[in-house]
Design brief:
Two copies of one chain form a homodimer. By secondary structure, the first copy, chain A, is an alpha+beta fold. Chain A folds into three domains: 17-284, Beta-galactosidase, Chain A, domain 5 (Distorted Sandwich), CATH 2.70.98; 301-484, Aldolase class I (TIM Barrel, Alpha-Beta Barrel), CATH 3.20.20; 554-574 and 581-702, Sandwich (Immunoglobulin-like). In chain A, a hairpin with a 2-residue loop joins strand 4 (40-46) and strand 5 (49-56). In chain A, helix 4 (344-357) runs parallel beside helix 5 (394-403) and helix 6 packs parallel to helix 7. In chain A, 57% of the residues are buried.
Chain lengths: 702, 702
C-alpha cells in the first residue's frame, strides 16, 4: 500500500449547532444538531434532497452512564482529507480517500465531567460517523447497554433485507417496503441450523434501499472492531431504523476501555445504483494495513473437494459412526462409509486437474478427524485440526502437490467451538506451515462456544480479527465462512482474503436455493463489506444429474455462473464444480481458466439491485478486460457502451453467452461462445436468458 | 507410581433390590434400593449406625430426559479391588486402594431404551459413587439440567461450612448446626471481590460435620472432570443436603457425550476425626497418573516477592496510571510509582536469600505488564504473560538465579480472563522454558471470561485441567490460585502440585483475617481434595510492624506458623515473610529451612475440627520425623505418644514451642526452642498458647 497524495486542511468552527458540513463536491451534506436537551442529532441530504431526517445519536452504558443527552458542545474541528492508496489485492489499483471531517467534542458534567466525540466523514458518495471516547479521568471502562443511532427515512422505501439474526446471515433476501418487513419469516428457514432472530422487525446490514424518488441508499458499518455487529430494528409506521447491537452471554453489548471508538455507521447514497457498487467508502473508513510486508499475500483461484459433499456423492465424515471423541477414538478401527471425499487418491485427481488448468490451489474439506458428529450437539472438542483421517496422507498430498506446483488450502471447521479453536490455533497454524499450506478456509457452523455468545457479538468479532492477526504472524491467508459479515477489514488485514457470511452457492445444492435475483442483490448488500467466497462455476446445475429424484438445482444458467466471476468480486475464487464436469465443457471452462481474480480497474456499467448487474474489470498488470453481466428471473437485453476499453486498441471479444433457448430452470446448459473485434466507443449487445448471464473476455490485439 | 498388589474378584448379584455391599472390613455398608417407581436410592451405615438415610439419586437432562426414575435393574456386578500405589509426591510413600465395588446397570425404555450405571465403591473409611452413561444407541449427547443426589442426614449435625458460591471459596468457616446455616452472611464479605452466592441455604463441599453421637462425616466429590463443581443446598428442617451444580452462562450444568461419567460423590465417615484426615479415598477414586515420566516433578520450597504486596510496602503495578492496554501502552514512558515490588534488584535479594538458606525457588509476582488496571473491569486483554516491566530484567534474573542454583517461579495472573490466557498459553509456556522457569503460579482473580461462566462451572473445570495437561507437555508444574477446589486430580496430573482455592494466609494481611480455628478446619475441608499453597511462615504477624495505624494481623503465634508446615500438607510450600524478617529470627527460621515438603509417612496423632490438630510426618528418604501441633483460640496441652518413631532409635527432639506468655493476639512472637532426647513409646507434652502451635523435629542419633 502506497500513499500517493496526502493533504490536510484544518479549520475551526463555532461552538453552536446546527453545524453543516458538505462533501468535497458539495453533493452530500450532513447537519449536526445538539437539541435543547443536549441530545446529539444528525441529518443527511443528497443534492439538496433529504436522505436521513433529523435522527438521534448516542448510547447508554452500565452504571447509569448516559451518552445520549445532556451534552454541551466543547468544540468542533473540521478537516479535509485527500489521499490515494493502493490495496494489496483489489478491484482497482488505486483508491482515493477524499472526505471532509467534522469532529464534535461533547461534554457533560452531571456528576463528573465526561467527554464523547462524534466524528463525521462526508464523502461524495456517502457519510460515515462514529462515537469516540478519549481516555479521560472519569471514563476508563464502561459497558455499552444500548446504542440509539437512528436512521429516519423520508418514506416507505423499497428494501432488500434479510432477517436480523445474531447467528447467521445465510437467508435469502426479501424485497419489500419498510412497512412490510416481517423478519419472523426467517424462523421457518430450517435449512439454516443455527438461528437467533431478533424479532419481526429486525433486519441486517448492509441494508439496501431505493426511494420512490429514485435514491439508492445503503446503510451499513465500517471497521467493526471490538464491538458487536449492528443490526437494525424498523419502525414500520414511521420508517425509522434504529441500531440493534448483538448482545453477549449476559446481555451486555460491548466492553470498552478508553480511548475507545465504535465502528463507523455508514450511509451511502446516490441517484445511480452504479455509484453504490463503485463506492470505496467502506474500505476508506478502515485503517491502513497493519501488515507491513505483504508480498506473501496472493490472489487464489482454486478447486477442491467440497461441492461433491454438498451434492451428496461424497461425505466429510470417514465413518458413519456418530459418537467419536478427539484423543480417544481409534480412527483406524472405524468402519469407513465408502463415501469419504477427502482421500489421498481423490485429492490427487484435483491436484492433477489444478496443475493441468493453472489453478493456484486445492481445498480439501473433511480431511481431519471429527466429522462423524461435528455438528449440532454444542460439543467443544470437535476437531483438533492436525489429525488426518486414515485415508488422507498429509505427507503424500504435500509431496504430490509440491511436485505439481500446486498449493493446498487448509480447512479449519470450528463447528462454532471457538474456545477449542483458539486453544489449538498455534498448533494448527504450525501444522499448516510444516505441510506447506499458506491459506486456510475456516468455518463457524453451529452454536458458539463460549456458550451464550453469538456469531455477531463483540467477543466473536474480536475472535475473527484475532484469527486474522495470528494467521498473519504465520503468513497465512484466511477465508472465513459463517462469520460475521465483513466491514472492510481486508484493508487492515489484507491476508483476510474473503468471507462467506451470506447465502452462498452451496444452498442451491440442498435447499430451496438462491433465487435468480440473489446474485444481483449480494453486491449491494453483503459485498459492500468485502469479498465473498461465493463458489461459482457450477456447470451441472441440476442435482438430478446425480440423483434422478432430486429437485434441487442452481438457479442460474451456465453462462451466468461464468459471469459471476466478474460480478462477484473476490481475490479468492473457487471453480466449485467437479473436475469431471469441467472436462466435459472445455470451451466454457476456458473462461474460468482465463478469468483473473485481481484487478487494476473496475467499471460498474449498469446495475439495479434485484434486477441486473454488468461490470467490467481490467486484469492486474495487463490490458485484458473482462465483463460480467447477470440478470434475475427476467430475460434482458443489455446494450453496453465499451467506453472502458483503452482507446486506440482493437480487442478480440470472446463472448460466453446464454444460448437462444437458455433458461435457468429448463435449459441452463445452453450457451454459445463467439468472438468479434471491438474497440472503445462500440456498444456491445448482450442477450441474457431468464436467470442468465454473459461473460466476455476482451483480449487486446498484439 | 508403582502398582504393588492388584487383586480382582468378581461375583454377580441378583437383579433385585435392595442390594447391600460392605467395605472390606465390614465397617461400612451401603444399600442400594430401586423404589417401586424405579427411582434409584442409597443409604450408608457405619458400624451398624445410620449415616445417610435412604436418599435419592439421579439427574435430569435437556429434551425431557429423566435419569431419576422409571428404571429397571438390568444387572448388578461386584468386585473387590486391592492395589498399592506410590504417589509421585505425597504424605506417604505408598497408598493402598482397597474397596468393594457394586455396579448397578439401570435401564429405562419409555420411548427408547437408555442405560445409566451407578458405581459404588465402599472403603473402610467411606464410600464414593458416580453416574456412568455408556455409549449407547439412544444416548450420545445430553445436557445435564439438574442432579438430584441427596445426602439425608440422621440429625442436626454440627457443620463446618462456607457459603455456596460459584465463584469463590475464600470465605472463613462458620460452625453451626445444619438448621442454622445462613449462607447469605457471605454477601457482606466485601473483602472477596467476585462472589456468586447460591442462596441462604447453599454450602460448599468438602463439608465437614459431626453428629451428636460422635460420628465425623465428610461430604465431597472426587475426580471433578468435565462436570461442574458440586455445592449442596440444605433442607434445614429435614437435614437433607442436595447436590447443587454450578451452571454455565446459559443455565445448563454439563454437556456430556457418552461414554460419560460424573465425578464421584463421596462420604467419609468415622468415629475418630483422625481417620478423616488420614483417608486416601479421594485420591484413590482418581485415575492414575496420565504423565508417564515424572522425574521432572519435584517438591518446591520457595520464597518470593509476594507478601510485601499484601502488606502494602510494595505494589504489583509499576505505575499508578490506571488505564493501560497490552500492545498499546508504552511501558517505558509510564511514571514509576516507586513502590514496584518486582524489580531486578529486589529479586536478587530473594535469590541470594534462597541460595543462602537452601530454598528451591523464588516466586516474583507483578513482573509482567498490565497490573495497573488488572482487576474489576471484566477486561479481556489484561496480561500477555511475556512482557516484563521496564525495571524487571528477565534475562538478568534468569542468569543470576542460575548462577546461584535457584529456580524462578513464573506468575500467570489471568484476572479471570481465561480466554485470553488460553490463547496465549503456548507462548507463555514457551517463554517460561526459554527462561528456565519450570513452575508457574496461576491466578484467577475476578469475573470469568467467557463472560457468564463461573470459576466452578464445567467450562472452567475443564480449563484448569487443560492448563495442567498443557503445562505437563512443557514439563511445567502448576500451582493454581482462585481456582475451583481440588478433588484429588493431583494423582492424575502430579505436576499440578497445589492450589489455593480457599482462604489463605494472605487474608490476615488486609482483612478481618483468618480466625485461630481456621487452620484446624482447613485439613478437614479444603485439604481433603489436595495440597494447599497456604503460604505460612509469617513471623511479623502484626501489620502495625509496617504501619503503626494498621490493626490487621495474622491470627496465630509465630510457633503456630512453623507448625503449619507440618499440619497443612503441600509438596509446594512458601516461606512467605520478608527475608529481612527471617534474618532477625534465625533460630526459629531454622525450622522452616529444615522442614521438608515431601514425605514417606504421615500419622494423624490427634485432631478435632475447629479445635486442634497434631500430625507427625517422616521425611522422604530419611528417618527424620517432624511434628506439627496447632490449636484454635484456646490454649491447650497435648500429650502425644511418640509411637510413630522408629523403635530402637534415639531421637533428638528439637522443639519450637510457644513461649509461656505467648498469645496470638497480644504476644505472638514469644517462642522457645529446646531440645531433648526421645524414643518410641515416650509421650511428648506440648503446651500450646491461645492461637498457638508447636513444631518439632526428631533427628535420629547417628
Amino acid at each position: 500500500m502506497l500513499l500517493l497524495v496526502l493533504l490536510f486542511v484544518f479549520f475551526i468552527s463555532e461552538l453552536v449547532s446546527p453545524v453543516t458540513i458538505h462533501s468535497p463536491s458539495g453533493k452530500i451534506s450532513l447537519t449536526f444538531t445538539l437539541s435543547s436537551s443536549g441530545a446529539p442529532q444528525y441529518a443527511l441530504r443528497f443534492k439538496g434532497r433529504d436522505v436521513i431526517l433529523q435522527s438521534r445519536l448516542g448510547l447508554t452504558a452500565a452504571d447509569g452512564l448516559n451518552f445520549s443527552e445532556g451534552f454541551m458542545i466543547e468544540k468542533t474541528d473540521s478537516l479535509v482529507f485527500d489521499e490515494t492508496w493502493e490495496p494489496v489485492l483489489g478491484e482497482v489499483k488505486q483508491i482515493r480517500n477524499h472526505y471532509k471531517e467534522l469532529k464534535v467534542t461533547l461534554s457533560k458534567s452531571e456528576d463528573k465531567k465526561r467527554i464523547m466525540i462524534l466524528i463525521f466523514r462526508i464523502y461524495d458518495d456517502g457519510a460515515g460517523f462514529r462515537y469516540e471516547f478519549p481516555a479521560q479521568e472519569h471514563l476508563k471502562y464502561f459497558i455499552v447497554k444500548h446504542e440509539f443511532t437512528e436512521f429516519r427515512l423520508t418514506g416507505d422505501h423499497n428494501t432488500f433485507w434479510i432477517p436480523g439474526d445474531y447467528d447467521t446471515n445465510e437467508y435469502e433476501y426479501s424485497e419489500t417496503r419498510i412497512s412490510k418487513i416481517n423478519a419472523l419469516r426467517g424462523q421457518n428457514s430450517s435449512e439454516i441450523s443455527t438461528r437467533s432472530i431478533i424479532g419481526d422487525n429486525g433486519v441486517q446490514t448492509p441494508l439496501m434501499m431505493k426511494s420512490d424518488e429514485g435514491l439508492y441508499i445503503n446503510l451499513f458499518e465500517a471497521a467493526l472492531v471490538n464491538y458487536p455487529a449492528m443490526h437494525l430494528t424498523a419502525d414500520r409506521e414511521k420508517y425509522i431504523l434504529t441500531a440493534h447491537l448483538t448482545p453477549d452471554a449476559v446481555g451486555n453489548k460491548a466492553y470498552l476501555q478508553t480511548h475507545a471508538r465504535t465502528p463507523w455507521r455508514t450511509i451511502l447514497v446516490s441517484d445511480k445504483a452504479e455509484d453504490i457498487l463503485a463506492s470505496k467508502m467502506i474500505l476508506n473508513l478502515n485503517e491502513p494495513s497493519e501488515i507491513e510486508e505483504t508480498g506473501w499475500i496472493k490472489p487464489v483461484k482454486y478447486v477442491g473437494i467440497w461441492w461433491e459433499m454438498h451434492v451428496g456423492t461424497s461425505s466429510w465424515n470417514y465413518s458413519d459412526v456418530n459418537n467419536v471423541k478427539i484423543g480417544e477414538t481409534d480412527w483406524n478401527s472405524l468402519k469407513p462409509n465408502g463415501r469419504h471425499g477427502a482421500t489421498t487418491e481423490r485429492t490427487k485427481v484435483y491436484i492433477d486437474f489444478a496443475a493441468k488448468h493453472g489453478f493456484d490451489a486445492v481445498l480439501v474439506e473433511g480431511w481431519n478427524v471429527g466429522w462423524e458428529d461435528w455438528f449440532g450437539s454444542w460439543k467443544e472438542n470437535v476437531f483438533d485440526f492436525v489429525t488426518p483421517y486414515p485415508d488422507f496422507d498429509v505427507e503424500e498430498v504435500h509431496r504430490y502437490a509440491a511436485s505439481k506446483g500446486v498449493k493446498m488450502i487448509m480447512h479449519h471447521e470450528t463447528s462454532g467451538s471457538v474456545t477449542n479453536y483458539e486453544r489449538r490455533m498455534d498448533e494448527a497454524f504450525s501444522f499448516m506451515k510444516q505441510h506447506n499450506y499458506d491459506a486456510v478456509k475456516s468455518g463457524y457452523v453451529g452454536r458458539i462456544i463460549p456458550r451464550g455468545e453469538f456469531h455477531d457479538g463483540q467477543w466473536m468479532v474480536n475472535h475473527y480479527i484475532h484469527a486474522a492477526k495470528k494467521a498473519a504472524e504465520y503468513k497465512i491467508m484466511i477465508n472465513a465462512h459463517e462469520s460475521v459479515r465483513p466491514t472492510g477489514l481486508h484493508r487492515t488485514y489484507p491476508n483476510w482474503l474473503a468471507n462467506e457470511a451470506a447465502r452462498g452457492n452451496e444452498f442451491n445444492a440442498w435447499s430451496a436455493g438462491n433465487p435468480p435475483s440473489h446474485e444481483t442483490i449480494l453486491p449491494f448488500t453483503r459485498l459492500m463489506g468485502g469479498p465473498m467466497d461465493y463458489t461459482p462455476g457450477i456447470f451441472e446445475t441440476k442435482m438430478s444429474f446425480y440423483y434422478p429424484d432430486k429437485k434441487e438445482q442452481v438457479h442460474t444458467t451456465l453462462a451466468k455462473q461464468l459471469a459471476l466471476y466478474v460480478t462477484m468480486y473476490s481475490p479468492l475464487q473457487m471453480a466449485a464444480d467437479y473436475p469431471e464436469n469441467y472436462e466435459r465443457y472445455p470451451d466454457a471452462f476456458q473462461f474460468i481458466k482465463d478469468v483473473p481474480v485481481d484487478w487494476d480497474d473496475t467499471k460498474i456499467l449498469s446495475a439495479e439491485p434485484g434486477d441486473y448487474i454488468a461490470i467490467a474489470r481490467m486484469e492486474k498488470g495487463s490490458e485484458t478486460w473482462y465483463l460480467g453481466a447477470i440478470t434475475d428471473e427476467n430475460p434482458r437485453t443489455m446494450k453496453l457502451p465499451l467506453d472502458f476499453l483503452n482507446t486506440g486498441v482493437v480487442y478480440t471479444a470472446v463472448m460466453y453467452a446464454d444460448g437462444k433457448d437458455a433458461h435457468w430452470e429448463t435449459n441452463p446448459k445452453s450457451y454459445m461462445i463467439s468472438k468479434k473485434n471491438v474497440k472503445a466507443g462500440d456498444t456491445l449487445e448482450l442477450v441474457l436468458a431468464p436467470g442468465g448471464g454473459a461473460a466476455v473476455q476482451f483480449l487486446p490485439e498484439k
